[in-house]
Amino acid sequence: MLVIGLTGGIATGKSSVSKLLKAKNVPVVDADLLAREVVLPGTKGLKNIVKEFGPDILLEDGNLDRKKLGEIVFNDEGKRKKLNAIVHPAVRWAMFRKVVQYWVGGKKYCVLDVPLLIEGGVWQWVGQVVVVYCSTDIQLQRLMNRDSSTREEASPRINAQLPIADKVAYADYVIDNSGTPQELSANVDTFVEKLDKEMGSLWWIGYILPFVSLFTAAKMLISRRLRGRPRTSQADKTK
Fold first, then answer.
1. Beta partners for 236?
2. Partner of 111 at 20 to 30 A CA spacing, among 120, 125, 127, 239?
3. For residues 213 and 207, is the Cβ–Cβ distance under 8 A?
4. Are 123 and 17 in contact (CB under 8 A)?
5. Longest Cα separation, the chain
6. 3-state DSSP assignment of residue 218
7. 3-class DSSP state of 133
8. Single pTM value for the model
9. What is the DSSP string of 30-68?
10. Which of 202, 229, 228 is nearest to 216 (CA)?
């Protein structure tokens, strides 16, 4: 089974692509959704957060007070690192379980929707990296329209992230979202068609013979880690 990492920047349209993929019955693992699940009441993640930050971090119903936690870690890098050390491993393990479930279910491929795919190093553990792209000018305008914010309010949020052009440098495939929703849908169609063509009709061999899948995955991961940052020039781009 091919595992694909999907990422983008704020307001580039990653969530729209994820929804389009789900509509086409492509298995999608949503890291943001899992990040919420791993800190639900009764989870080890929430217990560790309370142990680190105190019981005042909880709402009356026992759920995590995300606003209060955000205020605590926003301007404190040390506390933010402690929070990430609790949440990130739990999310990665949850993603792994989801991937195994899809593999056992006989899926040809699945998509990991991860906002910090590049920054968190997860790109090194997937078979392909897909970046949803639009220019910085379009990104800024969409963010302003989406949040009814000014240029002065929106620009720092974009600048706080890894530039989208830098993310493209890691991409095996780029989905262009510079146009209309209809054009984006067509570009996603092209991407899925490309995936189906790449997998061909022999994908089931790896499912029936697990050692073939394990050997292929190990070879790919070793190659990606030895290569380091992927090359921009060889990344495909939808038109």
1. 173
2. 239
3. yes
4. no
5. 56
6. helix
7. strand
8. 0.82
9. EHHHHHHHTTSTTSHHHHHHHHHH-GGGB-TTS-B-HHH
10. 202
